[in-house]
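Before the break, one more example. Copy the sequence into your notebook; we will annotate it together after we see the structure.
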Amino acid sequence: MSWHCLLVAASASVVLASVSVASAGAPAAAAKPPVLVKGDRIVFLGDSITQQGGGPKGYVTLVRNTLDVRVSGLGIETVNAGISGNKVPDLQQRLQKDVLDKKPTIVFIYIGINDVWHYKKQPNGELAGGTPKDKYEEGLRDIIARIRAAGARPIICTPSVIGEKTDGSNEYDKMLDEYSDISRNVAKDAAVQLLDLHRAFRDAEKAKNTANRPSGVLTGDGVHLNDAGNALVAAQMLGAIGMAGAPVAAK
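Here is what the structure looks like once it is written out:
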């Protein structure tokens, strides 16, 4: 299967994920991609994956290019609010300045990798450095509530991958699955749109990573996206705002 076909299929999975939220009892409005309107301002909130997404072949750039080509008359603006090393508590601290003060109408919340990845085993055997599950959940709920109170629409993304092996042997697989479930449950409880990047990446890895490589398929180092990973995320995000299909290549 070509990457173009994979990206189209991946963007279609956004609709299926949204339908699953609606069928679980969320209002029907939460299941539908937002309809882009003139003057929309989309903020991409996240960590180094998002920060790097502003590069020439990054996913933020690909979304921007696609909007410029396909809905140029709407004058949609994009804002990259990614900062390397950020975790959920960091997003809470800078939400007002870096997001709400920008007057967004749609906010993608792509976070969770560092909340898990920063956990390291200490000399006493305990893990430290990441974000405890309760703080992760509380933080996501706070971010969503504040974005809504400002009149914008949040779209919560599950964290993508920490390691690309498909046999469950990546160091953080179990924990990342648990944090992805927290994001899914928060989206369901808050009746906000869910973009399940974790599932999309795992599905793509099963199709492409037949050699069970730790990296080099969708990422360069197991976490940060390569060109194929950026294209996948861009396709997913475009699908989440009602623009299914492969993204327009970087200019």
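The mean pLDDT is 88. Residues 175 and 234 are 25 Å apart (CA to CA). Try to locate both features in your own notes.
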